[in-house]
């Protein structure tokens, strides 16, 4: 599968609000979580197998989480009254961004602490 197809799939699930309706919600969400779990599994193997495994793991978990996040924000927005839909979408987006930032922060803190303590961050 070439890079352009991957980028089209990621774009489709991330930016097209009608993409999750092409599949049932349970298939879209469940399949997304399975893809994300496989991606995280590849990330765990990255120190052993190298940069290709790292890139594949990152791409796989990103592709898996895109439909899940889209469904979650759609659920948040649809539960809000029409006059509050913009605020609900903002809360959903803020939660997504904050969760990602918190994850990167904890990863960076762990890597820095591992380096300071004198053992490799593996």
Structural features, described:
The protein is mainly α and 122 residues long. It has two domains: 3-79; 85-122, no CATH class. Helix content is 82%, strand content 0%.
How would you summarize what this structure contains?
With 122 residues, the chain is an all-alpha fold.
Radius of gyration: 17 Å
DSSP summary: helix tally = 4
Distance between the termini: 30 Å
**Proportion of residues in β-strands:** under 5%
Number of domains: 2
User: Which structural class do you get from the secondary structure elements?
Assistant: mainly alpha
| H/E element sequence | HHHH
What kind of sheet is the major sheet?
none
Fold topology:
Elements: H1 3-15, H2 25-49, H3 51-79, H4 85-117
List keywords for this structure.
mainly alpha; 0% strand; 2 domains; 122 residues
């Amino acid at each position: 599968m070439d890079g352009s197809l991957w980028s089209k799939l990621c774009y489709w699930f991330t930016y097209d609000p009608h993409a999750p309706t092409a599949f049932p919600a349970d298939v879209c969400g469940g399949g997304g979580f399975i893809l994300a779990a496989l991606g995280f599994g590849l990330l765990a193997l990255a120190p052993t197998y190298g940069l290709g495994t790292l890139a594949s793991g990152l791409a796989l978990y990103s592709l898996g989480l895109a439909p899940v996040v889209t469904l979650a924000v759609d659920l948040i927005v649809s539960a809000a009254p029409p006059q509050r839909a913009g605020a609900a979408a903002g809360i959903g987006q803020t939660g997504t961004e904050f969760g990602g930032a918190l994850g990167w922060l904890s990863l960076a803190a762990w890597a820095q602490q591992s380096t300071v303590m004198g053992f490799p961050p593996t």
